[in-house]
Amino acid sequence: MIVYGHRGAKGEAPENTLPGFVHAYRHGIRHFELDLVLSKDGKPVLVHDLSVDRTTDRKGSISQYTAAELGAMDARRNTHSWPKPTGIPALEDLLDQFDDLEHLQLEVKKDNRARLNILCNRLTEVIQRRSLYQTAAITSSDTWFLKEIRRRNKNIRIGLVTERKFPRPLSMASRLECEYLCINWKLCSKELVEQAHRRGMHVSTWTVNRIHDMLQLEKMGVDSIITDYPTSTRMFFDNRAKALLSLPAREALNVEPEMNVGSDESLHLTPGSH
Predict the structure, then answer these.
(1) Which of 68, 132, 219, 222 gives 20 to 30 Å between its CA and that of 195?
(2) Residue 218 domain-assigned?
(3) Distance CA 196, CA 192 (A)
(4) pTM for the whole structure
């Protein structure tokens, strides 16, 4: 089961910032989920909200600021313990930082159609220019946007981000010809996972912060989890794998070792929005 860092490593570092991604990368994380909004000067930037109010020292909508102005802000507002100021980066800054990331889920937030249309063009161009067809998927809960991506380039992978507002998420994802189904983990079931797999979809669940829930999802057969604590999560699964390797062959087949990362509550924080 693949572990994606949510907004880089939201629970360990300032969300959607380069230091957050570097922190997780240094601990072996190569899969990330991040959020994209269009800046005033037409660049995709990494930020979850349509305003800078929650995460920075400034006020106003993302559309009021250029990428350079967003990069100069202090985006530590929800991570006061982080030692140095860090701004809101552009997508190209992140892609220039790393050359061996295994996969990115690029989630596009809802916005007005004019701005989304420009963002659609920008993302299509970036993926084509950098040949990210195998290493990136564009995800969104905005079905119009996913249709537009598909219309521009059928080779770009897309994924439907689903919440309770989609009564039949698998049917919707199938109609959109999605390769990814990105679902709130509380809505996931073994039957849904099996049906998605029969349709050739990767099932990714968000936002999963408790080991107990991760193990239940693993039993359901999900392909990946998105977590605020990717480094702690990776440590848990790496330790479990090492423990299994150290067991005699017969025991390894029949015994599920008891693993503990501090306690089950060590990764239990209230899940945020996707």
Answers:
(1) 132
(2) yes
(3) 6
(4) 0.90
